[in-house]
From TrEMBL:
Domain called N-acetyltransferase: residue spans: 24-223
Membrane-spanning ranges: none
SUPFAM superfamilies for the chain: Acyl-CoA N-acyltransferases (Nat) (SSF55729), Carbon-nitrogen hydrolase (SSF56317)
Protein name: Predicted amidohydrolase
Signal sequence extent: none
InterPro entries in alphabetical order: Acyl_CoA_acyltransferase (IPR016181), C-N_Hydrolase (IPR003010), C-N_Hydrolase_sf (IPR036526), GNAT_dom (IPR000182)
A molecular function (GO) term: hydrolase activity
Pfam families: Acetyltransf_1 (PF00583), CN_hydrolase (PF00795)
Highest rank taxon of the organism: Bacteria
Length: 551
């Protein structure tokens, strides 16, 4: 029950304040703040692992309204991250990894009635402007605006290790801090901001040596809301429509580069006429550029020749994306990297003029053997004007860890350019794409090549049925297929997808794959620097000739 007579405080700070010549701004965190937030966290927690950019990206994408930054002279000097959770989850025994979805904030539940704080840090060099208090005020105001029952978090107790011989345990330490007999800067600050200690959580953050992994569950109850029992909020069935086009492109002989680009432009133009937000082309669609060579090139010669087109191709497609006002996922193209290796790269050219690259992480046996293509070492979401997306090139879609990483970072659409020479190879990509849509509760868009190119390796025969796949639940298409093309026919397949349905499914669906993961049992750890690639794989000769082999 909400007290009708209560007047809510208006504590949200929408503007800026000046202190002398300095400018202070407290606002919601944005993707552009990620480097500054990462640097701040490293400064504040010198003795603990820092966030990766992907984790911060996930925190913001999963609940932007709950992430705040404080900027002083345009430098990030404060950051806090929160999410909504159900009361049962917030107050049960848990640790930091489990409650935060391994740091990504992916357990945000828009139906949850409590605001859970899992990060708060302030630059220790900034004094006198009450950064921490301002961030706490933002949290309280958010809870009040959303009629949440309150705020809960597990607070550090950084003086515990130093003073542990003066107490009988973490509970006694907490009692003495509350009574004023011992001093703990973090707990005293939280108590001064109206939070009440609930209990000790042991083993909350093993990396927190100063607190000896202990934390104090701190609670603030919204004075403007009274609950007789926990209330589950409902997600409105809104509309957040995005129009997606997948191009099933036929391999054909072309006279030169310009003729190839005319074919690409034709489909971009058509998709733009239909006001599509995205168009995706197939993997290795640029192999057509080998069709006008005077003689058939060896695999090594072919890759070298194709890589020469990279700068021109990237610039032309970027200009095309702006001219036709559409985001283009440009299939994939072999590219020579700075270290001399050839990678299979998807260039994502957005209509704002920015260009992003997603390398194929897992080259197929044929790619490794015939072309000596090496795998990339990073997968991350790409921010677009329609929200965060992910790209997985063909074989990568058959490794569920990659899609889960993209989903944790906030991706709601995953594009899969593919190149397969047989129905069996195609179905491996198709079935895995459908699985990724279900287990990550997202849309998956497949785009493949059809036709053949004599005298061009990897283009002997092609098999494809491009499609737009959905989770399998009530708001979506009956068979989990929003749209699909006819097999082995050049065409453009277009469909509207409603991103708001994903939010509903993740919070209130028949199954909730993302939320129901057992974070207490398993997790995926990434080598963010790519320093441990493992043993090199032997270059075994594939069974087939030079076909892609279905990945």
């Amino acid at each position: 029950m909400v007290k009708q007579s209560a007047k809510k405080r208006t504590t949200r700070r929408k503007g800026s304040e000046k202190f002398g010549q300095k400018r202070l701004d407290v606002r919601n965190a944005m993707i552009k703040d990620i480097p500054g937030i990462a640097n701040l966290v490293r400064r504040v927690y010198e003795d603990m692992p820092a966030y990766t950019h992907g984790e911060i990206r996930g925190q913001i994408n999963n609940f932007k309204e709950g992430c705040f930054v404080a900027l002083l002279d345009d430098e990030v000097v404060g950051y806090c991250a929160t999410m909504q959770v159900a009361e049962a989850l917030a107050f049960q025994d848990h640790d930091w990894d489990e409650i935060t979805g391994n740091g990504y904030g992916s357990r945000h539940d828009p139906t949850g009635d409590w605001l859970y704080g899992y990060e708060m840090c302030v630059d220790p060099k900034v004094r006198g402007v009450r950064i921490g208090r301002r961030l706490y005020e933002e949290r309280r105001a958010l809870a009040e605006e959303n009629d949440l029952t309150g705020i809960v978090f597990a607070g550090r107790m950084p003086n515990y290790r130093r003073l542990r011989r003066k107490v009988e345990g973490p509970k006694d330490y907490l009692e003495k801090v509350v009574e004023g007999k011992l001093h703990d800067p973090v707990l005293r600050f939280q108590l001064a901001n109206g939070f009440e200690p609930e209990r000790i959580i042991e083993g909350y953050l093993p990396e927190d040596n100063a607190s000896m992994a202990n934390a104090v569950m701190m609670v603030w109850r919204n004075p403007y809301v009274e609950r007789d029992q926990p209330v589950k909020k409902r997600i409105p069935r809104g509309v957040e429509a995005v129009r997606v086009a997948t191009c099933q492109l036929q391999a054909r002989q072309v006279a030169d580069y310009d003729e190839f680009m005319r074919h690409v432009t034709y489909f971009v133009d058509v998709a733009s006429d239909y006001e599509a937000d995205f168009i995706v082309f197939p993997e290795l669609f640029t192999l057509m550029l080998l069709s006008f060579e005077e003689k058939e090139l060896s695999p090594v010669e072919a890759i070298e020749r194709l890589s020469e087109y990279t700068p021109r191709l990237r610039d032309d497609i970027s200009e095309m994306a702006m001219r036709y006002n559409i985001n283009i996922i440009a299939g994939s193209h072999p590219t020579r990297m700075d270290d001399g290796d050839i990678h299979n790269v998807a260039y994502v050219c957005l209509r704002d003029g920015s260009v992003h690259a997603q390398e194929k992480i897992h080259p197929t046996p044929n790619e490794r053997y015939w072309w000596n293509i090496k795998g990339g070492d990073k997968v991350e979401v790409i921010q677009t004007d329609c929200g965060p997306i992910g790209v997985q090139i063909c074989y990568d879609s058959e490794f569920p860890e990659l899609s889960r990483r993209l989903a944790d970072e906030g991706a709601r659409i995953i594009f899969v350019p593919f190149c397969t020479d047989s129905r069996q190879g195609y179905l491996r990509v198709r079935y895995c794409g459908q699985a990724r849509a279900i287990e990550n509760q997202c849309f998956v868009v497949l785009s493949g090549n059809v036709g053949n190119l004599p005298n061009v390796g990897n283009m002997d025969i092609q098999y494809a049925q491009s499609c737009i796949l959905t989770p399998c639940d009530f708001p979506f298409a009956r068979d989990g297929i929003a749209a699909e093309s006819t097999e082995n026919v050049e065409t453009l397949t277009i469909s509207d997808v409603n991103l708001a349905d994903l939010q509903w499914a993740r919070a209130e669906g028949t199954v909730r794959n993302l939320a129901d993961r057992r974070f207490d049992l398993y997790r995926i750890e990434w080598d963010e620097d790519g320093k441990h690639p493992g043993k090199p794989r032997p270059r075994r000769e594939p069974l087939g000739p030079t076909g892609p082999g279905g990945g």
